[in-house]
Design brief:
Blueprint lengths: L2 H12 L13 E2 L4 E2 L4 H18 L2 H18 L16 E3 H18 L2 H17 L10 E3 L4 E2 L16 H14 L5 H14 L10 H17 L7 H21 L3 E3 H16 L7 H12 L17 E3 L2 E2 L2 E2 L1 H17 L13
Antiparallel strand pairs: 1-2, 1-9, 3-4, 4-5, 6-7, 7-8
Helix pairs in contact: 1-12, 2-3, 2-4, 2-12, 3-4, 4-5, 4-6, 5-6, 6-7, 6-8, 8-9, 8-10, 9-10, 10-11, 10-12, 11-12
Length: about 350
């Protein structure tokens, strides 16, 4: 097992980023010595990461923590009467389309690892509510709904998280996985619908903002779009978008990184290079991948403080690490570095699944 994975695994277990409820904080503020609020999306990402660590190590403690995260989502966050999975539970004010898709995938990861049918049941109900509640008259999906009435919030074109767009395709992977998990092929339809709209509009997503730092943030979202293409990677349009999208992302990342770089963008880009190679879409640029893996590894915290050691910092501005230890950055990083370690000495194997 890679030392980076072992250290990151210990961070998930020992740092306190996962609270006693099973919920996972959005990040740890190293400068303030405290966690931010628990988020359902981040809890779901952590569940997937802990399942991944269990598969990599065989250690039961990772599976136990994944199950605790999933139980938080089902018992504390999910509102079965309203069929709603709020962004945060204290208080439950908003639900995000994207977050719901990530929660579906986190619950399915935990279900596959534990066999708990309740997790599949909630994931299925949440997937159906996504398709219904977020549907807009123009065929798009609203990004945010306000509770309790599920009223769509006004969209903001300058903020990708408050806009409908191609990045939502990663959330639609939840529908794709539900079709496989349940045998209900009707879950394919909303994925295909969002795929078609994304293929029409993705060319307008980058750079998308005059502020270079905001462009770096949009790279993170744009890579979600590329991940969402993977089920249809054999389609010529999707293959072309993957190839061109990887080139676009690398160009902007390397141009902006001296001023501001996000660790998750390095991790996501490295994953996409390897997945695209495994899908037979784009040969792996090993020199670029090696450089990105090296830079990504530089975001991992060292030292003896269990609250930080092993976690990955969110980003670096002007050469200084920002004081945010991120569960999502850490999850993406361990997967990316493990994939790179697996394939750097040989061809990238075909991938049966998709990035977490």
């Amino acid at each position: 097992m890679l030392p980076q994975l072992s250290h990151a695994g210990e961070w998930f277990l020992r740092s306190g980023i996962q609270e006693p409820t099973g919920g996972v904080a959005r990040y740890y503020r190293a400068d303030l010595g405290r966690n931010h609020a628990v988020s359902t999306e981040i809890t779901a990402y952590a569940a997937s990461a802990l399942v991944y660590l269990h598969a990599a190590t065989g250690e039961r403690r990772y599976l136990d923590r994944a199950a605790a995260a999933a139980r938080f989502l089902v018992d504390a966050a999910w509102d079965p009467a309203a069929r709603a999975m709020p962004f945060e539970v204290a208080p439950p004010e908003f639900i995000y389309f994207f977050d719901c898709g990530i929660v579906v995938r986190g619950l399915l990861a935990a279900w596959r690892a534990t066999g708990c049918e309740e997790l599949l049941g909630v994931a299925t109900a949440l997937g159906r509510s996504m398709a219904c509640d977020f549907a807009a008259p123009d065929g798009s999906f609203h990004p945010i709904l306000a509770l309790p009435g599920k009223r769509p919030l006004e969209r903001d074109p300058q903020r990708w998280s408050r806009s409908a767009g191609c990045y939502q395709l990663k959330a639609a992977l939840g529908w794709w996985e539900l079709a496989d998990a349940t045998g209900d092929s009707s879950f394919r339809e909303p994925y295909e619908r969002l795929l078609e709209s994304s293929l029409r509009t993705w060319g307008d997503f980058l750079p998308g903002h005059p502020d270079r730092h905001m462009v770096m943030d949009r790279l993170h979202a744009f890579l979600y779009f590329l991940e969402g293409l993977l089920p249809r990677a054999a389609d010529k349009r999707c293959a072309a978008a993957l190839c061109e999208g990887i080139r676009h992302t690398a160009h902007y990342l390397h141009e902006i990184a001296p001023d501001f770089a996000r660790s998750d963008v390095y991790a996501q880009l490295l994953r996409m290079r390897i997945y695209a190679d495994g899908a037979g879409v784009a040969p792996l640029d090993r020199a670029a991948a090696g450089d990105e893996a090296e830079k990504l590894a530089g975001f991992q915290a060292a030292g003896g403080d269990t609250r930080t050691a092993g976690g990955f910092y969110f980003g670096r501005k002007g050469g200084a690490l920002a004081p945010f230890l991120s569960p999502v950055s850490t999850a993406f990083a361990i997967e990316a570095l493990a994939l790179w370690d697996e394939c750097r000495g040989g061809p990238a194997p075909a991938r049966p699944g998709f990035p977490m």
